[in-house]
Amino acid sequence: MSRWDGGDGTTDQVPPEWRAAADVVGAPGLVTPWLDRFYDADDVALLLAAANGSLEGVAEARLERAVRRAVLDLDADGAHLPADFHARLEIWAMFEGWKDVPLAVRRQLADWDVDTYAERIRADVEAVRDGRSGDSYEARYTYLLLDEAKAVVSAQERIYLWPCDCRSIVGACRKQTHVCLRFENDRGLGWEISRERAFEILLQADRAGLMHTADLHEDPAASTAICNCCTDCCYPHLAAGRLGTEDVWPVRRHLAHIEMTLCKSCGRCGLRCPFEAIACNSSGRPTLDPARCRGCGLCATACSADAIDLLALEKA
Known about the structure:
Elements: H1 16-25, H2 35-38, H3 41-51, H4 60-68, E1 72-74, E2 80-82, H5 85-95, H6 103-129, H7 137-140, E3 141-144, H8 146-154, E4 159-162, H9 165-170, E5 180-182, E6 191-193, H10 195-207, E7 211-215, E8 225-229, H11 235-243, E9 254-258, H12 268-272, E10 278-280, E11 286-288, H13 298-302, E12 308-312
Antiparallel strand pairs: 1-2, 3-7, 4-5, 4-6, 5-8, 7-8, 9-12, 10-11
């Protein structure tokens, strides 16, 4: 139980400075009794000082720690400002807490965060749906085939391994968490890894049934990260469901094609498809529903008979 939760749903015991800090970071009301799990007293003091523009004289080590933990952020001019609660929740879930918060609160927070994310990307995703997308991150956010993901990794100067923020927060499956490959080390928290290790992680993720997604550019080196996603926890997939844009976003560029003369009727492709686009009958013979296929490629990498190709949509 929170030290500020009297069990009656009220938050009267929360000190006023902590309430003020919650307002500064935009924390949802449901987390108010649990703020001491996300921030300590020093964090609260820094948040209020940053909000008032009164951080002068604060030791650099305190500021660096606050930025690393997503209590504070830096603006384009290098000035410190309060980090929003989403940023703190993300870092805290990946590296610090979660076990300190009851499961019911955790689930409410995950729902709040996905809802907030969906609203933040709504305009860009609806633009993709309507065929008027520009150069936004969402317009480039797409499924990658395994070879495409390897090409993106090959083009990077540095690679950092991070926990999956979506899976860390939502926690709706038991798939591996340490699978996100970032090419910039935000807050200095990722582990720098070799290109060979990154390839191993891509293969492990593929074997585990995780799809590869990225903000794909014409120049692979311009991509900022590769996510290895499931449909249970992945924010883009959950947000697309809330926005009613699953048929177009994340962007699909391929369609699976099954060469039935090569098929051995093992049924593995049907088990692997995250979108139920492939149904196998009692004999293991597959049928593909093109409308459901996202072109993620998981069916093809599971096919020991090499009976499945991923065709570019303009050629499918």
